[in-house]
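Supplementary Methods. Inverse-folding protocol.

Structures were first reduced to a discrete structure-token string of length 343. This string, shown here, constituted the complete conditioning input.
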């Protein structure tokens, strides 16, 4: 018997309803399944080797710090960790490589303030920091203010008084126009209202050599660069630019302490931390942060970090984001007020 047009229409409508219902069920099922799958992904992470991109040369302080962390994480994860040094362009090459990597948690980026807060404020970089997700601030590298023995200043107050009495006569060295060493000195000078003369060097070793030769009067540089020289009484330490004293030089005050709180904003050294390409699952971000914090809590790892002059941190992603935002604003102001240009 032939179906009437009305019957055919009803049949077609019924089938369409069934198809829509099936699609809705499939969508709900997929949504429900996605939650446990994401949880399992984080719980099982990592299931293969993890690559760490670092924009610094092998053998330096930053590279040593990363290898301490990577080896400890590898043991905790039961997986191989690979350190890949991508050097060039004042850390730009490594940063671009990290941003361009898959956002699957198997490529992480070990970076410092140079890539994240200084370069973007100094120059037009071919990347956006928003393309990176902060995981944790691993450690701070306290910057120590030292002067030559011939410089007539036994403490920071006397150094500031000398600079005010003789403007533009004190020479300070750094690793370059946009280096953290220069910016910290500029921050202190602007805060104290003094005028100093900048002398750029190729790196920290050359800056220290300039100090020992008497070519410059002062510099801010990593604590570990000066421990032996201070012990040999070849240089004089005035203050450390962090919010806490260095464990290697516990008798040296912070800048804030040395000025009775007048220079309270000069409390930042350089730092190093972990990032992931934007879009990496948040569950993996949180897992990596917890693992890094656990590794840093290990007494052997802490000792390895501290003996090299680092202050272990292990912050949360939120705390790390706050640090980055604060310092980005700070360095932008220092660079603008000091009219600092890239070399």
């Amino acid at each position: 018997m032939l179906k009437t047009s009305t019957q055919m229409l009803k049949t077609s409508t019924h089938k369409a309803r069934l198809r829509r219902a099936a699609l809705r069920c499939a969508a709900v099922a997929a949504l429900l399944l996605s939650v446990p799958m994401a949880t399992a992904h984080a719980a099982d992470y990592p299931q293969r080797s993890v690559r760490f991109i670092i924009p610094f040369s092998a053998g330096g302080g930053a590279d040593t710090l990363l290898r301490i962390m990577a080896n400890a994480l590898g043991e905790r994860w039961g997986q191989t960790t690979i350190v890949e040094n991508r050097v060039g362009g004042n850390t730009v090459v490594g940063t671009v490589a990290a941003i361009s990597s898959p956002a699957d948690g198997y490529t992480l980026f070990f970076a410092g303030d140079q890539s994240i807060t200084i370069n973007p404020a100094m120059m037009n970089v071919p990347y956006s920091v928003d393309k990176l997700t902060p995981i944790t601030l691993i450690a701070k590298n306290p910057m120590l203010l030292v002067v030559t023995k011939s410089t007539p200043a036994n403490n920071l107050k006397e150094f500031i008084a000398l600079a005010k009495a003789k403007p533009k006569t004190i020479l300070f060295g750094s690793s370059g126009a946009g280096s953290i060493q220069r910016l910290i000195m500029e921050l202190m000078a602007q805060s104290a209202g003094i005028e100093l003369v900048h002398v750029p060097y190729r790196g920290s070793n050359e800056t220290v050599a300039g100090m020992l030769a008497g070519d410059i009067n002062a510099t801010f540089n990593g604590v570990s660069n000066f421990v032996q020289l201070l012990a040999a009484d070849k240089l004089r330490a005035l203050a450390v630019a962090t919010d806490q004293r260095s464990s290697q030089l516990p008798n040296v005050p912070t800048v804030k302490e040395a000025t009775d709180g007048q220079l309270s904003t000069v409390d930042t050294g350089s730092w190093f931390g972990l990032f992931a390409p934007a879009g990496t699952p948040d569950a993996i971000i949180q897992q990596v942060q917890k693992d890094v914090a656990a590794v840093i809590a290990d007494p052997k790892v802490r000792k390895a970090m501290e003996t090299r002059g680092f202050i272990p941190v292990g912050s949360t992603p939120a705390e790390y984001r706050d640090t980055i935002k604060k310092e980005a604003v700070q360095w932008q102001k220092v660079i603008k007020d000091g009219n600092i240009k890239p070399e």
